[in-house]
Amino acid sequence: MLGSHLGQAIDGQECVLRMNHAPTAGYEEDVGARNTIRVVSHTSVPLLLRNQPYFFQQSQETLYIIWGPAKKLNRE
After folding, report:
1. What transmembrane ranges does the database entry give (predicted)?
2. Over the stretch 21-71, which tens digit does the pLDDT of each residue have?
3. How do the domains of the chain map onto residue ranges?
């Protein structure tokens, strides 16, 4: 994606899907800045929680989908 200069085209789509904790800050020209849906593996949740302002205050429109084995998806 680096060097693709597709950021504006990506942001112009109806739905922008991101995976885990992939960054967009600093790469907007290539990957855009919008997040409609972010699919997060249970193993990446701690990484998101370490940087809450970046992931959770960036946009109110982002829907987070956490996935993984049921035994790993507890409230802790």
Report:
1. none
2. 888 889 999 999 999 999 999 888 888 888 888 777 767 788 989 888 877
3. 7-72
Assess contact for 39 and 20: CB atoms under 8 A: yes
Which tokens hold the place of 30? Answer: 């290539």
As to burial, measured by CB atoms within 10 angstroms (0-12 exposed, 13-18 middle, 19+ buried), residue 23 is: exposed
How far is it, in rounded angstroms, from Cα 47 to Cα 19? 13
| pLDDT 10s digits, 15-25 | 999 999 888 88
Q: How far is CA 55 from CA 2, 3, 4, 69, in A?
A: 21, 24, 23, 23
In 3-state terms, what secondary structure has residue 26? coil
Which of 19, 24, 34, 21 is CA-nearest to residue 2?
A: 24
